[in-house]
Amino acid sequence: MPAASARRLAAVKATPAIDKRDAILRAAIKVFARHGYFQSQVADVARVAGVAAGTVYLYFRSKDDLLVSIFERTMKDAIDEGRAALADVADPVDRLRRIARLHLDRLGRDRDLAVVMQVELRQSIKFMERFSSTHLQDYLNIIRRTISEGQAAGAFRNDVSPNAAAKVLFGALDEMATNWMLSRRKYALAGDADVVVDLIIGGLGR
Amino acid sequence: MPAASARRLAAVKATPAIDKRDAILRAAIKVFARHGYFQSQVADVARVAGVAAGTVYLYFRSKDDLLVSIFERTMKDAIDEGRAALADVADPVDRLRRIARLHLDRLGRDRDLAVVMQVELRQSIKFMERFSSTHLQDYLNIIRRTISEGQAAGAFRNDVSPNAAAKVLFGALDEMATNWMLSRRKYALAGDADVVVDLIIGGLGR
DNA sequence: CCGGCGACTGAATGACCATTCATTCATTGC
DNA sequence: GCAATGAATGAATGGTCATTCAGTCGCCGG
Question: Residue B203 above 60 pLDDT?
Answer without folding.
Answer: yes
